[in-house]
Specification:
Blueprint: H1 2-40, H2 43-67, H3 70-87, H4 89-101, H5 104-110, H6 115-144, H7 152-179, H8 183-192, H9 194-199, H10 212-220, H11 222-234, H12 248-251, H13 253-280
Helix pairs in contact: 1-6, 2-3, 2-6, 3-6, 3-7, 3-11, 4-6, 4-7, 4-8, 6-7, 7-8, 7-11, 7-13, 11-13
Length: 282
């Protein structure tokens, strides 16, 4: 009896390994296909960076003088980084809706490939776009006076947290894209919900300057956690005239940012996969 149980356990383990290899292999193929589309349409990368650069120039040089000058420009960049990777989830939304509308999802369904690979390929390819956008935005930040004051390892951790948060946001974008009736609706729905979340946070001003209810929302907003984590790790404190953050989310920003990102993945990966199965089976 114990021998049969052991053999069955070994068989299940082999099946899981084979399934994981298949998902990764198929997901890599879909990722490459999506990245080739970015190569053929470089305006996608431009769209991922033009708006953040406009925000940097607007807040750094139009409002920055009254908010702290050079210190504010360093304070600003973590918020721009976080907003950039989060807003790139809109590409996931539009990409999924576009594939669905053009019948590409039906073609994938007819192939002997993992269903999870389609979603994984889309989110990973958009993660690569976010990484390239972060590189461009970092160079832009250096030009306006932003500097990394922390250690090299702290900076690497900050970028990894930003990319993890962007990856988590892309799964929300995937669910919205699969739920939208067409690309036009997906384009609006994929971005609309991000504006209040990004502005009711500490992206541009300290959460302590907001009135009561908004202050509480901003302090516990996942955006604020990721932003504060990046600021702490980059060594970019708030300007002298801005009240430093306080409370549990601020004191444990890295832990809270990591936890919320993992929680978002735990919720929206299964929801996206379930939605894809329903859509692909029609």
């Amino acid at each position: 009896m114990s021998t049969m149980t052991l053999e069955r356990g070994i068989t299940i383990e082999r099946d899981l390994r084979g399934g994981l290899r298949r998902v990764l292999r198929d997901g890599g193929v879909v990722t490459w296909r999506n990245l080739m589309n970015v190569r053929r349409n470089p305006e996608m990368l431009m769209a991922a960076t033009v708006q953040p650069i406009m925000f940097v120039l607007l807040f750094a040089f139009v409002f920055g003088g009254s908010l702290g000058g050079g210190a504010y420009r360093e304070f600003l960049m973590a918020g721009i980084f976080t907003q950039t990777v989060a807003f790139n989830s809109g590409f996931t939304t539009i990409g999924m809706a576009n594939d669905l509308q053009k019948g590409i999802i039906d073609r994938f369904r007819s192939l002997p490939m993992s269903r999870l690979a389609v979603l994984l390929g889309r989110t990973v390819s958009d993660l690569v776009v976010s990484a390239m956008a972060l590189l461009i935005m970092s160079l832009c930040g250096l030009l306006v006076g932003w500097r990394i004051r922390g250690s090299f390892l702290d900076a690497v951790l900050a970028y990894l947290l930003l990319l993890l948060f962007g990856f988590a946001m892309s799964w929300i974008g995937a669910l919205i894209g699969l739920s939208a009736p067409n690309v036009e609706v997906a384009q609006s729905a994929g971005i609309m919900w991000l504006f209040p979340l990004s502005f009711i946070s500490s992206a541009f001003v300290g959460a302590g300057t907001m009135p009561g209810p908004l202050k509480a929302i901003a302090e516990w907003n996942p955006f604020t956690a990721v932003i504060q984590s990046a600021r702490d790790l980059f060594g970019n404190p708030p300007p002298p005239r801005m009240t430093p953050p306080s409370g549990w989310p601020a004191d444990n920003a890295v832990l809270y940012a990591l936890g919320t990102s993992v929680l978002i993945l735990a919720i929206f990966v299964p929801l996206s996969v379930a939605k894809y199965r329903r859509v692909a089976s029609k």
